[in-house]
Recover the amino acids of this structure.
């Protein structure tokens, strides 16, 4: 079997200087904190994927989306290779719900200067290299 990278997507909802993160449970990124996200489906646009994942996982409806950078990571412990696309969502409607309890222990809002630990690898990489993009969107 040939191993190939997968394309993931993280939908970073921001509100009042805070980002929405969930504590993951399951195969990839278990017990780490990450924004809503998942896999880009065949034929799906980046914005459509971000809106779908945000709605499926949190019940929030994206109103404005800004496509951001990507990261290229191996995620421990099994070294799953992911190219993760990041979409910043500064405007949305609805109230946060835990819609996929089998994948997430719960959602919380965190200030950028007080993020929980550990972060899921792609989001940690994003914060190390591109966190200034979130500061710009928070202005």
């Amino acid at each position: 079997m040939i191993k190939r990278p997968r394309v993931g997507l993280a939908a970073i909802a921001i509100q009042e200087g805070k980002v929405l993160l969930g504590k993951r449970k399951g195969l990839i990124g278990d017990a780490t904190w990450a924004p809503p996200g998942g896999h880009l489906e065949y034929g799906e646009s980046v914005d459509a994927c971000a809106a779908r994942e945000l709605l499926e996982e949190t019940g929030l409806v994206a109103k404005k989306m800004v496509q951001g950078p990507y990261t290229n990571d191996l995620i421990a412990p099994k070294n799953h290779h992911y190219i993760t696309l990041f979409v910043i969502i500064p405007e949305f409607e609805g109230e946060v719900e835990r819609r996929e309890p089998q994948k997430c222990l719960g959602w919380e809002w965190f200030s950028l200067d007080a993020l929980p630990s550990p972060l899921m690898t792609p989001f940690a990489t994003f914060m190390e290299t591109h966190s200034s993009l979130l500061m710009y969107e928070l202005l």
